[in-house]
C-alpha cells in the first residue's frame, strides 16, 4: 500500500440551457464501468486545471466551452478496482458544438440531463461531488 499513490483527475461539469452533460462509461474504462460522468480525465504533468479541462472536453466530446472554473474536489477510493483518485471538479458553459463520442472505447454516449433527473448509475466522483456540492452547480 505504501508504494501506491492516488492519481489526479479532472471532471468538467458542462451546462447548456440549464442541463448537465454526462457520458456513460464503457467496458474498456479502467474503473466505474456503466456509470455516468462528465467529460474529464487525468491531469498531465505541468498542466493547469483549466488547460486539462479544455483538452479533455475537446478529446472526449469535441465541444467548445467557456473558461472552466474550479468548483471543488473529491477523494475517490474505488475499492473493487484498488484505485484512488483525487478528482478536481471544474464548471463550464457550453459555447458551441454537438457532443460526439470521440473515444468510443471509453464512453458509449453523451446526454444532457436536468439536475433534478440525473441517471441512477452515477460515477463515484460524481456521487461524491453531488453529495456535498450540488448547490454549487444550481
Short descriptors:
single chain; alpha+beta; Nucleoside Triphosphate Pyrophosphohydrolase; globular; 41% strand; eight-stranded mixed sheet; 138 residues
Describe the structure.
By secondary structure, the chain is of the alpha+beta class. The chain has one domain: Nucleoside Triphosphate Pyrophosphohydrolase, CATH 3.90.79. The chain has 2 helices and 8 strands. Strands 1, 2, 3, 4, 5, 6, 7 and 8 form an 8-stranded mixed beta sheet that branches. β1 and β2 form a beta hairpin. The relative contact order is 0.29.
Brief description of this entry?
With 138 residues, this protein is of the alpha+beta class. It has helices at residues 49-61, 124-137, and strands at 7-16, 19-25, 36-37, 40-42, 64-65, 69-78, 83-96, 107-114.
Amino acid at each position: 500500500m505504501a508504494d501506491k499513490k492516488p492519481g489526479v483527475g479532472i471532471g468538467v461539469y458542462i451546462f447548456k440551457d440549464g442541463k448537465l452533460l454526462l457520458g456513460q462509461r464503457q467496458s474498456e474504462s479502467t474503473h466505474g464501468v456503466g456509470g455516468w460522468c462528465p467529460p474529464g480525465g487525468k491531469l498531465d504533468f505541468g498542466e493547469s486545471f483549466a488547460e486539462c479541462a479544455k483538452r479533455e472536453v475537446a478529446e472526449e466530446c469535441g465541444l467548445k466551452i467557456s473558461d472552466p472554473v474550479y468548483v471543488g474536489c473529491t477523494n475517490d477510493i474505488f475499492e473493487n478496482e484498488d484505485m484512488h483518485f483525487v478528482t478536481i471538479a471544474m464548471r463550464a458553459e457550453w459555447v458551441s458544438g454537438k457532443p460526439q463520442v470521440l473515444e468510443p472505447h471509453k464512453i458509449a454516449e453523451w446526454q444532457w440531463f436536468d439536475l433534478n433527473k440525473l441517471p441512477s448509475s452515477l460515477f463515484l466522483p460524481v456521487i461524491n461531488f453531488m453529495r456535498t456540492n450540488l448547490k454549487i452547480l444550481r
